[in-house]
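ZP: hey, is the phosphoenolpyruvate complex queued? I don't see it on the tracker
AM: it wasn't, my bad. submitting now with these inputs:
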Amino acid sequence: MDCGGLLDPALPDRLQLRSGRAKIAVLIPFAQRAAGDCTTLAAEEVIVPRKPIVGGNWKMNTNRGSAASLASAVASAHQDDSGVEVIIFPPFPYLLEVGRAISGSAVMLGAQDVYHEADGAFTGEVSAAMLRDCGCRWVLTGHSERRHVIGEDDALVNRKTRAALEAGLSVILCIGETREQRAAGETDDVNTRQLTAGLQGVSASQSGRIAIAYEPVWAIGTGLTATPDDAQAAHAAIRATLAEIFDPSTAAAMRIQYGGSMKPGNAAGLMKMPDVDGGLIGGASLNAGDFSAIVQAAVRA
Ligand code: PEP
């Protein structure tokens, strides 16, 4: 069994402790680690560090000039990746310009969408290889606006997720319930369904290049935000589902971001929760000062 790359064979078997931010402790049996199996026997505590991850989804906003100046401002605030990964997702036409503006900084480039075919007669679509060619390292899949405005279903989200991973991109897979689903008590069921379908055919060895964004649809762009306790409950359930899809140590290592009207004023409260590993930010990412304040909240969480 693959132990998820969490263990350092150079350290003694008594205790393996990795430095870095540690939001969760898991028990991994060292006697079995030696035998290549992480499931049973006496356990030692292993701290699993999850580096927070903050993304700025610009959606269909900015123009060529404002995209470049916003990217420059974000880049100058994040020259080194001191404890947090920062990604910005500009509109397709500005990827190259924004890539130039953040070059040399710790900020990474991401795309808001991808098509699952490699090339061919797919007018208007953009492949994973094209995104890589433009300097992208990340892509969003399953964003609620693509699901609920454009009409993407779980099967298409899965095809896009797999194509992006196979092309070497990292993926933020977005999931979350609508207001009606929440009122009907279906939050965990919806998240489980979207996760299970979205990650169909994805291997545990690819999980290091996947982050999950829990974005309740009713909170996106509305000014409404899940309470820290509600977000934590959803994130814990998502992590339990990831443990079923992959395995517990893989799930413990995966980052789960919260998205939905995250602002400088509520970011710290959300990100201090044990299973909240950063944020996916829409509106507030269009203001470099607000976005940086949220990144700083992630560093301190
Ligand atoms: C988003 O677009 O993913 C998002 C969370 O938007 P907002 O922060 O504006 O709610």
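AM: back. Residues 1-20, 27-43 have pLDDT under 50 and may be disordered.
ZP: great, adding it to the tracker
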